[in-house]
Amino acid sequence: MTDRRLAILVVDDYATMRKIVRQLLKQIGFSNVHEAADGSEALALMRDGGFGLVISDWNMEPMTGLALLREVRADARLKDTPFIMVTAESKTENVVVAKQSGVSNYIVKPFNAETLKNKIATVLGPLEEVA
Amino acid sequence: MKNATVKKRDEAHAPDEAGLSARVNGVMGDMLGDVSSINLQIYGKLELLARLIDRMKGDIGRMREGEPGRCDLSSATDELDAVVSDSAAAAGAILEAAEAVEEVAGRCSKADRDKLQDAAGRIYEACSFQDLSGQRITKVVKTLRQVESGLQLLLRTFGGPHPQPANTSAPPKGDAALLNGPQLASKAQSQDEIDALLASFG
Asked: Are residues B146 and B85 part of one domain?
């Protein structure tokens, strides 16, 4: 069973979206949630260590979610970190490039809590029901 | 006063004006014959193009002079930027209200708590509209700014002494070509389609 205490990093340049994902994660039972407004900030936080999952937007500046994913997969200490892309980019080529770059799963916006929960379970393993 | 040798040399090399005139007239006559056989439609189109350019120059001149009704792209993009920031503020306020509902839900009976938390969850999901609409509007603003840049170039070209190089918006390449933002509902792939695509990787 997945430990709901694991630290999750939410990366999105829209503060509203970070808040939404945080609240949805809380509803699923994950409350150890941290935020970053872009890929560069996320990478710096990740290098400080300790994240069990990254949930990232794609379209951000200066570092996109795709660039962040590639940096994570290229870093020996971070390369096995589960990474879910949550994005409005829904074209086939986007999904293919993300998969080839090592994404663990891909959620297209808009999404709901059930989708988020299912994708996290796919990546991390079964989630026990929240009391 | 030229000496006799120079004068003689000049006379030897002097153009035969009468002969030259005859030759020119001969060529002109040949050309006129060819002109009549050239496709008159091409001339018609060239004339139309010249008139369009003249009209465009007039329109651009009026734009410079601030004629009423001219398109003010700068203020339009400012308005759209304001829509994005205002909707972000509104979504933030809605989320805070949903959080307050969740806090109260914690003190309710299980049945009421479940209902309230479900409602709060639906509010969070619905508020993601702000993210998508913000991205769509940002795409529009980017396009408008490119149009504005092109128009400014035309203004400078037809009136300014130093036209700037055009902001040639060549199609993006590499990773930049993947930054398309939200697609229209009729074109966007569903989560199920994306799941199937991911699964095809094995």
From this structure: yes
